[in-house]
Give the backbone structure.
Amino acid sequence: MSLATASIRDLRQRLTAGEIHPSDILNDLASAIGARDAEVGAYLSHNLDEARAAADKADLSRPLGGVPVALKDNINALGQPCTCGSRYLEKGYTSPYDATVTARLKAAGAIPFGRLNMDEFAMGSATENSALGKTVNPHAHDRIPGGSSGGSAAAVAAGTAIAALGSDTGGSIRQPASHCGVVGLKPSYGRVSRYGLVAFASSLDQIGPVTRSVEDAALLLQAIAGHDPADSTSLDAAVPDFSAGLDQGVAGLKLGLPKEYFGEGIDPEVRARVEERARALEAAGAEIVEISLPHTEHAVATYYIIAPAEASSNLARFDGVRYGHRSREAEDLLDLYKKSREEGFGAEVKRRILLGTYVLSSGYYDAFYNRAQKVRTLIRRDFSEAFEKVDAILSPVAPSPARRIGENSDDPLKDYLSDIYTIAANLAGICAISVPAGTVENDGVSLPVGLQILAPHLGEATLLRIAKAAEGVALA
Ligand code: GLN
């Protein structure tokens, strides 16, 4: 069996037993990429030579010693490209430093290998907004892999990466994980440093693992979590051993099903898969109760004001002077700003910058931005009240399985609306995970869907424990 489809735990056992060498894993990955990535399109680039050199020096005594990990192309790794799926950074930008997560992976002995496709600047839910390539769902090549971390989920699902990191601002790790049938974890706000992640919406962004098992997700989170003085939003909180309690099961835990997450718009089969898992967890000893998150219906509108507002500010740094694209047509400085941005950014990025600038502009600030902040507080309160009654929440990840490529290209709003179940976790700052929950039949194809589990802020240990139970439950 190819090492490219093995689990981190398995690889680590074989590496430390001396049965395999880290370069064997890279060789198998290189063959898998050669065989499948022309079709899947998960990678924007990879650095095999550099990775081989790192493999020769890998310290196998470290927790991830010798394990290659692929990165979404918005996470800086010294000497590598970091395109963010944008023409703007396609040429003329090489990372001058390691993001904290990259440095921590290296310190844990992992080998950052390969750059994965994404929606431009992480704006999207299908990876169709990448300016640099098309990624397909490995389970059905005419379907989207989800997004914005579509390359991360597709590579892990296709067996062309062992594990990957993605970023999640409104669902971008969980939704592609759900569509591709892998595990995707969005840590709590402040759990993982974003230093060196190209910022989209700074009050929402988190980096997290995309893996084939919950166990692997716990191992990767362990390596990247923890306080970092270089990111003022990273928390100085104790990092528990995420693998230690994984097998404790769900007996005695109270899990809530939010009634607002099972209403109008959800595909009945997606609903059925989530409910089956809930029943199985009940049979495994959890108590399942109905809860209410009353402000759910306002989550999409709130997110699509706050995220673009922050993006319009964050993306102001792309001015044609400091990084990446610089227009050759410019006549003066103002013209340089305008033309570099006009030429470098794609349609969705421009749409978000315009929306964000509008909601922040004088006269509209109170009506839109300030109001959205108030609703955000109500959404956060929904969760804190719910977590007084339950230990965690179970829900769908997306209302439908992966749609066809190109289906919503003339109506971005349809994709915005499909973010309904994932964005509230970012608005509230809590942690959430997508674990595979079987498949649904859709127009004659069988497509994976995920179960989302949401837990209180810094509740990753409990979250992972429930996820591990859900991953392995026997269905009635
Ligand atoms: N789909 C959402 C958006 O387009 C979320 C993206 C993300 O989490 N980066 O903004």
The chain has a mean pLDDT of 97. Residues 365-389 form the longest helix (25 residues). The radius of gyration is 21 Å.
